[in-house]
Amino acid sequence: MNTLALIISLIFAYLIGSIPFGYLLVKSLKGQDLRQIGSGNIGATNVRRVMGWTGFFTVLVLDALKGYGPVVGFPLLAQSVAGWPPSPWFPPALAVMTILGHNFPLYLKFRGGKGVATSLGAVFGLAPLGIGLAVIGFLASLGLTGWVSLSSLVGGAIFLVYWFISVDNPFFSTDSFSTIVFLLLYVMMILRHRANLKRILQGTEPKIWNRDSKSFGSNQPTRTGRVASGVIPILAIPALALVIGTGYHWSRPTGFENDTLSIQATERIPARWQRATHLAWWQNSSRLAVSHPRFNRIAIHEWNEQNRSFFSREIELEGRPEAIATDPTDAIPSLLILQSAGFEGVHLKPGWIQAFDTNLNPLGDRFEVGDYPKDLVILPRLCAAAVLTAGRAEGDPNRDPPRISLIELDERGCPARVRSYVELNNPLDQPQSLAVRQDETATYLAVACFRSRRVIGFDIHDATSPRELGAITLPFEPGGLSFSGHRLVVAAHYEGRLALVDAWSCPPQIVELPPSPLQGQVVCLGSNHCLIAQPHDSSLILVDFRKMATHETVAVRGFANLTGTRPHFMAFDPNTGRLAVANYSGGSVHLFSTKIKLMESLTGRSPIR
């Protein structure tokens, strides 16, 4: 987004909001200064005392339009003329500036109105249905009490309840800035009405059908009686609605279901430490290993007889965990952890693998694998592990070339020796991640190279002599990748796109997803579905390969279903259908149960060649 255009747009929004339509209308038609009449406010309510209901509705509409116009018009103008798409926070920022302009207008020495009508128009541009409900609540309260000030606050509270119920993650998503803006506007509305609230409590606030310029122009307020008995239920409505809205968020199920697939949230494992990244199911899914690289820790979670998780033990590492791997078939019993010397020492020392047995005791010495370790997978049919190292691709020409090393594992699952390795000689290759596919007759490996935008395939069934199958150049930097039956699925790292590779000799099929500044790991569910983590939006995108035009979203919600998460890494166990999603920012782990309703092959056709 162009910074200068952004600043100019916000300034113009403030100047438009500063136009005092009520003051100008009364001054031009009546020759009076509205600030010296009645409450001294320049809004529609005070205009009514001078010009009646016609003036009231005229100013109400004009004030609402000056809030609505910039919020809706400026983003459209920016995209059509300047050619850049507006950020999600741009319309809410315009709303704030127009309301600030009305409340503190430059043209009247910053003495303005209370911002109800302008807020109505601005927020209508952001959430029209919510404003409709707020207007209904306003009118109902006004009919019962006759107080515009109290009814405005009731309408605002109803809008907030609508917003918190309708938005999946009000505090962590593209809607988070709007949430903050709406809360600030409501606080501002309360502060601007504090004198009215005081008069309501004293019983001296005039009702709209009793208001006239005479009573408001005098120094002695007209007493209308103590607080009416009907006010207490009205004041209780926003509080009750907030409780109901919070309870709705707390209890509502998280997941997705259609006629072929069901994904339902089952449990949230609280954070042991922050920055949860790699995950691995272990020992027939009775354990879940969670990597916390910021603290050089691996947390081990287990399940009790009631099928509830509990923290079992931790592994304190010598280095920073870069990847963890287990064998889903349990033929190889160990837990392998790929480590580096951390941010300070990664440039000085090679990475290594450390194996741990089922009692979490180290197996043998650490096994050095090369410079700048990136990823690790276990190849159970070969009794081996594949390790990806970036080497000189990270910018140091004195390091070894980037390579994939095939390491033999002994009967304990401990690294024994390097069987073979494959070097990546393209100077633009910057390898990031691996994906493996094994069946009875073949073992295939794919590596994503970020800078060159290549995905390279290898046949490694003969671990002593790996063979390159081919390479595909993508129109984006590849991020996460995973095999789905015969197909390789590759997610764009910085875009909302997906590539489906069916053969190394054919161009990939590109699938357009919702716009995304960052995409995380890919997990395939059977041969027809995959999930892509969306860290920016607290969600997972579900792609059905049979219905490329439509995509579903599975929310990954935080505490009480009110807060957001940053899902990036996932682990799926096809035997139990359990999916674990790591929250990078908070460190929690979110569990989902998955079920494929229609019979769907988990193997598909032969892997890509």
Describe what this molecule looks like in 3D:
There is one protein chain. This protein has 609 residues and is an alpha+beta fold. It has two domains: 3-251, no CATH class; 255-596, Methylamine Dehydrogenase, Chain H (7 Propeller). It contains twelve helices and 29 strands. The chain is elongated. It starts with a helix and ends in a 13-residue tail after the last strand. The model is unreliable at 213-230 and 599-607 (pLDDT under 50).
Write a concise synopsis of the structure shown.
The chain is an alpha+beta fold. It has 2 domains: 3-251, no CATH class; 255-596, 7 Propeller (Methylamine Dehydrogenase, Chain H), CATH 2.130.10.
Layout of secondary structure:
Layout: H1 3-17, H2 21-30, H3 44-82, H4 90-103, H5 116-126, H6 128-145, H7 148-166, H8 176-192, H9 194-202, H10 213-217, H11 231-251, E1 255-257, E2 261-269, E3 279-282, E4 287-292, E5 297-303, E6 309-316, E7 320-325, E8 335-340, H12 342-345, E9 351-356, E10 362-370, E11 373-379, E12 384-389, E13 403-409, E14 415-423, E15 431-438, E16 443-449, E17 454-459, E18 467-473, E19 478-484, E20 487-492, E21 497-501, E22 509-512, E23 522-525, E24 529-534, E25 539-544, E26 551-555, E27 567-573, E28 578-583, E29 589-596
Antiparallel strand pairs: 1-2, 2-29, 3-4, 4-5, 5-6, 7-8, 8-9, 9-10, 11-12, 12-13, 13-14, 15-16, 16-17, 17-18, 19-20, 20-21, 21-22, 23-24, 24-25, 25-26, 27-28, 28-29
Helix pairs in contact: 1-3, 1-4, 2-3, 3-4, 3-5, 4-5, 4-8, 5-6, 5-8, 6-7, 7-8, 7-11
